Amino acid sequence: MSLLGPCRCDAILDGAEPQDGPSLMERLDPRTRVILAVLFALVVVTVDALAALALALGVAVLAAALARLPLGLTLRRLLALEGFMVAVLLLLPFTVEGRVVAEPLGFAASAEGLRQACVIALRANAVAVALLALLGSMDVVRLGRALSRLGAPRRLVHLFLFTIRYIDVLDREYRRLRLAMRARAFRPAAGLHCWRSVGYLFGMLMVRSLERAERIDAAMRCRGFTGQFPSLEDDDIRPPGALDWGLGAVSAVMLALVVGLGV
Amino acid sequence: MAHIPDGVLSNPVLVAGAIVSTVGVAFGLKGLDPVRVPRVAVLSAVLFVASLIHLPAGLASVHLLLGGLAGIVLGWSVFPAMLVALVLQAVLFGFGGLVVLGVNTMDMAVPALLAGLLFRLAWRDGSPRRAAILGGLAGGGGVLLTAVMVACMLGLSGREFETAARLVVVAHVPVMAVEAVFTAAAVSLLARVKPEMLARAS
């Protein structure tokens, strides 16, 4: 039972490994990607027509292809999302009133309900795919810096960057503690003992991580940390290039098309 | 974590959630001493991984929310901590969405904040046993309130979601039991090993 599930923590933190040269998505300025993601989500949540939402999902899939997202992993993540929504989606045809199209087991399913279920499924998936493509494929530290340049509060960005770091620290610490528990024949099973043991495990995890954080903080102060993260490889400060403007324009046209279809 | 995806809730609910969370995050950041950023980040990381850890509970397995624990340790900083954890989950795993971030943050952070406030009000004597009992209440109560809030957001978005909203609350009952025991243990350990973690939250 790894803390970060099937995916390796390093893989998450380093972003997708480029196979042959950087993908088109990677050559975009991180700020462009953040702005596009926000605009896309806003548009998708606003429009209501099925055709527009289908187009939006298509655009998101295109972006995923540009970002060279791994197909299997992406599908698995979407499946997890579907698992969450399945109750809402399955119930909608029966809870929305309207023209009855089918009556499985005596419950009336309405066309309006089916339509609304489709709308929700399309929207949720379009936004999820777009997020994974635009932001999930990016090194999260770069994402943090991009957010900072876009005017996110400095403390929030610090918190963001420290959190990324501690996810990795926690993961290692967790594995160590779990190994110790396994060496003492602990096996997860439903029951007070298991739940309490995991409670102690997390308590200890927090104590250890925090003590480590305090040591790091002290060391950073010794080296003159003033609350800023200077970066040696901070090349994001350039103004947006031709690629950003070009792709921005293409995206704007596509979003306008989605809105046009939807209103 | 309460991951309502994008596209489900109605616009007024989304706006209300965004406003509540913005105020909460602003307030949390304002009171956040730079020295405490690492502590808050540890908790954000814990919140982030909480939903990846599945514990067996009867026939099903549940994942923890950890709102109560975060509220007890963090106080108002739980708002930014929750926001960061949710952003990372949305971006890296596609859990939840972008426009619903406000609502999701609110659903998690408000119960956590209340649980933390009540815990600190009631835990005066510093005994680990009492901390465990209160921690259990905070953990279980936090989950219940989060489930009720998620249900309310769904219910307010349209009558057609009412059945699903009830299901959400029912589905969280086993989580409540697991999380109460879990939080009781975690908090009693903190009370014994590092009590200043529980006492000093702003």
Plain-language structure description:
Chain A has helices spanning 9-14, 24-27, 30-46, 50-66, 71-95, 111-136, 140-149, 154-183, 192-222, 242-262, and strands spanning 100-102, 109-110. With 263 residues, chain A is an all-alpha fold. Chain A folds into two domains: 11-148 and 239-262, no CATH class; 154-222, no CATH class. In chain A, strands 1-2 form a two-stranded antiparallel sheet. In chain A, α3 (30-46) packs parallel to α10, α4 runs antiparallel to α10 and α7 (140-149) runs antiparallel to α8 (154-183). Chain A starts with 8 loop residues before the first helix and ends with a helix. Chain B has one domain (11-199): Arp2/3 complex 21 kDa subunit ARPC3 (Orthogonal Bundle). Chain B is globular and about 50 Å long. A two-stranded antiparallel sheet of chain B has the order 1-2. Helices cover 72% and strands 4% of the residues of chain B. Chains A and B meet through α3, α5, α6, α8 and α9 of A and α1, α2, β1, α4 and α7 of B.
Estimated helix fraction of chain B: over 70%
| Mean pLDDT level of chain B | 85
Count of beta strands of chain A: 2
Strand count, sense and closure of the main sheet of chain B?
2 strands, antiparallel
- CATH topology tier name of chain B: Arp2/3 complex 21 kDa subunit ARPC3
Q: Number of folding domains of chain A?
A: 2
Task: Quickly count the helices of chain B.
Answer: 9
Percent helix among the residues of chain A? over 70%
Which structural class do you get from the secondary structure elements of chain B?
mainly alpha
- Percent strand of chain B equals under 5%
Order of adjacent strands in the largest pleated sheet of chain A: 1-2
The secondary-structure class of chain A comes to mainly alpha
Which architecture name of chain B does CATH use?
Answer: Orthogonal Bundle
Enumerate the spans of chain A where pLDDT stays under 50 for 5 or more consecutive residues: 1-18
Output the CATH class name of chain B: Mainly Alpha
The run of helices and strands of chain B is HHEEHHHHHHH
The low-confidence parts of chain B are none
Number of helices of chain A: 10
Mean pLDDT metric of chain A: 78
Number of domains of chain B: 1
